Amino acid sequence: MIEVLCSLELAQQLQFQGFENSNGSAKDIVSHSNSNLMLGLEFFGAGRFLPYTYHLMKCALNLKYSILSKRKTTDIRSLLFAEILTFFLSFLLIAIAPISASIPSYVPTDSISLDCSSSIFPSSVKMSSSPSEFKYDSSVVTRIYNIDSHIFQYQKTLPCIFRKQTTYTFTVSTGPKFIQLHFQPIKHEILDISKALFSVSVAGYTLLGTSKFSKHNLLVDYAIREFCIIIVGQVVNVTFTPSLHISESYAFVNKIEVVSMPSILYIKEDFPLPLVGYPSRGYYIQNSRALEMMHRVNMGGDSISPKEDTGMFRFWIEDAGYLTSDESSTRTIESEVAINFSSLMPAYTAPKKVNASARIVTTEGSFANWSFPVDSRFYYLVRLHFCDISGWTEANEGVFRISINNHAVEDHADVLHWSHGAGIPIYKDYIVNFSRHSEGIKHLSVAIGILNEPDDISGLAILNGLEIFKLSDLSNNLAGPYPFGTNDGHDQKFPRSSEYEDIKLVIALWSFMGFDMVLVLL
């Protein structure tokens, strides 16, 4: 604690010295200082209070700089006031940190679910036009989408079908939101799934562009697409637009969910992140960027259902399907120590189950390697979750290397040193640039391992969890070429059909084709 306070004070001194001595611009110096400040605040956390604490600290430090920079000679009163101000801010951090650490999960301000199976829409949702209507007899419908009995069951849902542009308007509070779109295609000769060609936009961002399910390459029975968007104002408009270039095209969705999220859970505008392959460059994610969740993985553990998440209904899957290295060189472990969330990382950042399991490497010269399909032409945020659950008790006993896309991002990773204690979760963020690649599916690789070098300390390589997000481009676009999957062997966004139980469905279709008929899907 004292060490971090000293680091904060050093950042302040560097800010003052930079203004006096640097030939660079004041804006650059302030930005650098604010980044150091955010790092210090991240250590203390302040949970959901962190944004307010951060801005208060920035204002107070600017005041301190103003006092110090204007002095021509030594002014005892000004110096005394500046030091009292610093002491007060340090005390504020110490006071708030235990409060944030005690918050077990996140309680969203907005949590709205629009289920097309229901005849009653939430009062906070309006729509520009009515979708084509599916009517069904619930007594004869058996429609359970089951990835695996120990993961979770999808609720019974029917799609809303749109033959023209349609907008749903959600009344919400201002701030960042998770937006989840659920898709369960109707597969039948009369309702041609290849005509499901449409785009989806939200708040000026293109989420899906000319997206379609292909009946020849369909790998999934159910797809969930998750996005993170900062909403300015009191409404979220979700617009579905069937293709204008294909006759009889249509759009559909089964469920739309809008859930609030902590303000700096993934985007910290003033905090530079390491750009993989360019160690001297930092990358800033601006609040104007939207994110698309590509992969969210629980390393070494079972899948975690949305109900088991920390209040934000995220879905974590197991890592075995992504592992490309020899599984015999790794093993999975469960926690040998208690998981203690602290102000370093609020409890809502990841479920306790993520931190209580891990995949490890213990043999020198061995690596664990994972490969994740991603769309080219975008930047990606890669978040690695760590928690020392192995029983190591001292720093430097678990030093290892971390590589992303064959670039070493950490040569001497030491989780215990980072977290300041066993069983205390922490994460590291990195940016990967695929924007210069030709259009198509690429693979983003992550590897951990112990180097066989004389100066390395033998130990243990560990990874507890991983999240990968696509960043919107400068045109506010997130649409990739294969939004509903490819023939790639694995893709979290699109669970494979073989993982589901058989679906037997009897639906009376009304009005979409313009006359009454019955579809029987087996």
TrEMBL record:
Which UniProt key words apply to this protein? ATP-binding, Glycoprotein, Kinase, Membrane, Nucleotide-binding, Serine/threonine-protein kinase, Signal, Transferase, Transmembrane, Transmembrane helix
Q: What is this protein called?
A: Malectin/receptor-like protein kinase family protein
Q: Which domain of life is it from?
A: Eukaryota
Name the Pfam families for this protein: Malectin_like (PF12819)
> Species lineage, top-down?
Eukaryota, Viridiplantae, Streptophyta, Embryophyta, Tracheophyta
Subcellular localization is given as:
Membrane
In the record, what terms sit under GO molecular function? ATP binding; protein kinase activity; protein serine/threonine kinase activity; transmembrane receptor protein tyrosine kinase activity
- The keyword Protease belongs to this UniProt entry's keyword annotation: no
* Membrane topology (UniProt): Single-pass type I membrane protein
Q: Does the keyword Amino-acid biosynthesis apply?
A: no
> What are the transmembrane regions?
79-101
InterPro entries hit by this protein: ANXUR1/2-like, Malectin-like_Carb-bd_dom
Sorted alphabetically, the Gene Ontology cellular component annotations on this record are:
plasma membrane
Domain (Malectin-like): give its ranges: 163-470
